[in-house]
Write a structure and sequence with these properties.
With about 250 residues, the chain is of the alpha/beta class. The chain has helices spanning about 70, 75-85, 105-115, 155-160, 160-170, 185-195, 210-230, 235-240, and strands spanning about 5-10, 10-15, 15-20, 30-35, 70-75, 90-95, 120-125, 140-145, 175-180, 205, 230-235. It has one domain: Aldolase class I (TIM Barrel).
Length: about 250
C-alpha cells in the first residue's frame, strides 16, 4: 500500500532534514516526513496544502485551495524507506496532515526503518483524534499530541474526543502541545488539563503565528500564564530561522 505525502514542489516529497522547531525536542537535528490528508480543518492551519484541495470547502482564513496533483505525491513504501535511509539523522518526525490516518502503510515503513537502523527515534505529530493501531504503536518513541481548541474552528465533538484525550493523558510517551492565539484559549487549556489530569510536565503551550513578530507578541503574555499554571512553553524555532516555508 502506498503512502500519500505532501510536496515541497510538484513531484518532490516533503522529506527533509532540519532542527525540530517545536515541543519537547525543539532544537534537535531531525529528519522530517510530512504526510498528506487530515480529518480536521483548522482555520489557521499553516499546512493547508496537505488537505484543502480544490473542491474542499472547509473554512480556512486564507481561503486558498490547492491542486491535489501538485501538492500530494503517492509513493510506494519501499521508495519512502529508501529516501529516508539516505539521510543520516537518528530522529524521525512524522508530521502532516494527520499521519495516523495512514497507519497501516506507515507502520510497515517504520518497521523497515527500525530494522535497518535500530537506534532511530520516531516521533509522530498528531491532532489526537486517531488511536495508534496495534501495529504502529510499539514503533513510536514519542507522540506529540496537539488537540485543537475552539478557536481552530473544528467542532469539539470531532476535535476533542474524551476517550482519546484520556488515553493520551495516561500515555507517558505522549506530550501535549496546545496552540493558543488569545488568553481566552488558555482557560480552555486549563479546563482540559483539569478534566483529563494531564501532567504539567507533559503539557506545552505554543503561540499561534507564522511570523516572528506575532509569535513574540503572544509569547509575552503566554509566558506569564505558563508560569501561573505550571505549563511548559514552546516557541516555533523554524519560523524565526526560515519563515513560513515548506521543507523547513
Amino acid at each position: 500500500m502506498p503512502l500519500a505525502l505532501a510536496t515541497t514542489t510538484p513531484g518532490e516529497p516533503e522529506i527533509f532534514a532540519s532542527l525540530q522547531g517545536e515541543g519537547p525536542s525543539m532544537g534537535r537535528p531531525s529528519l522530517f516526513m510530512r504526510l498528506s490528508r487530515c480529518n480536521l480543518a483548522c482555520q489557521w492551519c499553516d499546512t493547508a496544502y496537505t488537505w484543502r484541495f480544490t473542491g474542499d470547502n472547509r473554512p480556512h482564513r486564507d481561503g486558498l485551495a490547492f491542486e491535489r496533483q501538485a501538492n500530494q505525491l503517492v509513493l510506494d513504501e519501499d521508495d519512502v524507506v529508501a529516501r529516508l535511509l539516505a539521510f543520516a539523522q537518528d530522529r524521525l518526525v512524522v508530521t502532516g496532515g494527520e499521519p495516523l490516518l495512514q497507519a497501516p502503510a506507515l507502520a510497515r515503513v517504520l518497521a523497515a526503518l527500525k530494522a535497518a537502523r535500530p537506534e532511530l527515534h520516531v516521533e509522530i505529530e498528531t491532532n489526537g483524534t486517531v488511536a495508534p493501531s496495534p501495529a504502529i504503536d510499539p514503533l513510536i518513541d514519542q507522540f506529540n499530541v496537539s488537540p485543537k481548541l475552539a478557536h481552530s474552528g473544528n467542532p469539539a465533538d470531532l476535535a476533542l474526543i474524551p476517550e482519546r484525550l484520556a488515553a493520551w493523558a495516561a500515555e507517558p510517551r505522549a506530550f501535549f502541545k496546545f496552540v493558543v492565539a488569545s488568553q481566552d484559549d488558555c482557560a480552555e487549556v486549563a479546563a482540559l488539563q483539569a478534566q483529563y489530569a494531564i501532567p504539567g510536565a507533559r503539557l506545552f503551550v505554543m503561540p499561534e503565528g507564522t511570523d516572528s513578530e506575532t509569535l513574540r507578541r503572544r509569547e509575552k503574555w503566554l509566558s506569564a500564564l505558563a508560569l501561573e499554571h505550571g505549563w511548559r512553553m514552546t516557541d516555533r524555532l523554524h519560523i524565526h530561522l526560515y519563515g513560513d516555508t515548506r521543507g523547513t
